[in-house]
Specification:
Length: 248
Amino acid sequence: MKIAKQIFKQALEEGRTFVLEHEAKDIMKAYGLPVPAYDTATTAEAAAEKAKKIGFPVVLKILSKDILHKSDAGGVKIDLKSEEEVKEAFSTIMDNARKYGKEKGIEVDLSRGAFISDFAEMGTEVIVGVTKDPQFGHALMFGLGGIFVEILKDVTFRLIPLTEIDAREMISEIKAAKVLEGVRGQQPRDVDALVEIIMAVSKMVSENPEINEIDCNPTFLYERGKGALVVDARILIENPNEKAASSH
């Protein structure tokens, strides 16, 4: 996909090895991954206007090449229910980003403004991720989100590229697989939608080997037939210059 190559090239030209949130979502969309409606804005007024078009409630996040972990910089506001709340949140995250820059001794570039996204309805949280091993290459990770991954480390891995059989095996072999089948009166989750996400991520990495890491976390999985949404997405890429330098 041309779009991924263009975005990666621009990121490296700007001296960053990560893509911004809207860029990650653009790439995901191009590969057919389901993402919430989103837009970007450089002023509080524009953010409020675009939030209205997306439909409330929305999430607002800082967009800056100098900030990778937005929450650490106070750069995220969720569940905003009106234009006024969006305008106020825009000012707040900009102020927080400036303060964060001062604490870190850097001039934070705020020219890109903010990322606005539909505040997705909660589903069963799952994680689809990719890591790159110097010896074995890319591996895809799958697990349920929240406590399952943080405390129980209930995850499974496969080397990329994956077949659909691999994807289905991964989903069934985690210890908490029964959660997806519907327990205690819950409806079964849309496993077919999850398989499509895993396959799309595998394809994305196969076509773009410069990807170092992907984190689709959280991905919300809804009832069978109702699909899934990749709510948060992070893509890290390698700097070819650094790679060349380390091989000498």
